[in-house]
Fold this sequence. Notes:
Number of helices: 3
Number of strands: 8
Distance between the termini: 58 Å
Largest sheet: 5 strands, antiparallel
Helix content: 25-40%
Amino acid sequence: MFVSIPYLRRRLEPLGDSFIVTLSGLTRLEFHNSDGTTTPLREEIELGTPEILSTESESMPIKVETTMGHLTLDFQSISFALDTGQSIKYEAIEKVCEEYWGEWRVKAEQSAPPNSAEPDR
């Protein structure tokens, strides 16, 4: 599957906007709509394109939150590639992600109004 994350992908050479995620040994693939119903992912994609928001999963099955509900996946292995076809290790993606969000936090802190310890007079 293609996962478009241009703000991370542009930090890796050669230039691109997406990653290719390949799951092997897929044993579970369920899409749970926001209304609680379960539909095949193929049907959900025909209705619209669910955008990945996050996952907190650290074990199988994993739960991926999307804009249209959540996806439950169970698989044997996962591999990553750039949208240009070159393989990439998960750790390289994780590194650019940590760098991006670290820079984002610094910018947010710098633009936040200063906290005043003294009450207004």
